[in-house]
Amino acid sequence: MSLPPLSRRAMMRGAVLVGVGAATGGLHTLTSSPAHAAVARPTMHGTASWGARAPRTPVSLISGRPNKVIIHHTATANQTDYSLARAQSLARAVQNFHMDSNGWIDSGQQFTVSRGGHIMEGRHRSIETLNGGTSFVFGTHAGAQNNQSIGIENEGTYMTVGPTTALYNSLVNLVAYTCQQYAIPASQIYGHRDFMATACPGDVLYARLPQLRADVAARLAGSGGGFTAVVDNTTAGRFTASGNWGTSSFSTQRHGTDYRFADPVLASDTAWFKVNIPSAGTYQVDAWWAANAGYNSSTPYIVATSGGNQTIRMNQQINGGQWRNLGSFHLNAGDYNVVGVSRWTSAAGYVIADAVRVRN
Ligand SMILES: [Zn+2]
């Protein structure tokens, strides 16, 4: 979706509200799955918290559950105010646009995730029905999919850059919880463009949907304790490297738009990935690199553990384009440089700094 001007707007105007009965999938009983821990309910800010206007007419509820989640971007600026206040004002702006310009009864989407990672309720009653898991709000965000999907807007424009780490992590939390509540398989996560002629949710965010599906699947399988943070070399404010590190998009195995590379030298000159660790404890640390036969076979990854730095060497000639586990480490709480790539290796070939993931 987007704020004005917008081609989708015309299409969405044609979205006809069909009667609730026609779209009813029937009540279902949520099967319990005690084999693994439930996905935690994320913090969601309801319409009352951001001063939403009342819907023009009462929102329609559909009995039963949606069968998919559809990802959007708001096509607004990639601004750097990550506050809750900003997320609230965005929620109001989107609602005003949808009601006043599009003529809809309320915000079109069920949820919006801000660049600061704040999860905002869009159309009224979206949180209440999500928590209940047996009905959902009939939204207006993806044409013929409206009566069978949950729409999530992501603040920003993701044609050439990816979302913030905070946004992505909250998106994983929200989608995982949604999939759990409605028993939607992680495979049923889509982009708006899968169903309509639109650039939404942007080329870069759309290209991350396979990763989103994988991260949500892991959460649903209980392999995640609730925290996952991905930091790419392009993640704003979370990656630092000296000018000796070049930038390349040569390999299609890259994570995101590009990666950083440097010649090996007998000096550290570490490229660092900063992660906000929520609480002291044991975490899995993974790395992603673009592999090439000419890259370094013994690249030193440094993990800043609570007991001091540990170095793990990885062969970047192979196993590229995927997450590779560096191990399990005890980390202190706090927002700090957690994982680094050092240039200090006697092996030949570029060392690569592309992306890291920390999870528990
Ligand atoms: Zn969209």
Automatic annotation (TrEMBL):
Q: Which residues form the Peptidoglycan recognition protein family domain?
A: 42-196
- Domain of life of the source: Bacteria
Q: What would be an example GO MF term here?
A: N-acetylmuramoyl-L-alanine amidase activity
SMART domains linked to this entry: Ami_2 (SM00644), PGRP (SM00701)
GO BP:
peptidoglycan catabolic process
Q: Which residue range or ranges hold the N-acetylmuramoyl-L-alanine amidase domain?
A: 54-202
Which CDD domains does the UniProt entry name for this protein?
Answer: CBM6-CBM35-CBM36_like_2, PGRP
The similarity annotation says: Belongs to the N-acetylmuramoyl-L-alanine amidase 2 family.
- The name of this protein is N-acetylmuramoyl-L-alanine amidase
| Organism of provenance | Polymorphospora rubra
Q: What is the lineage of its organism?
A: Bacteria, Bacillati, Actinomycetota, Actinomycetes, Micromonosporales
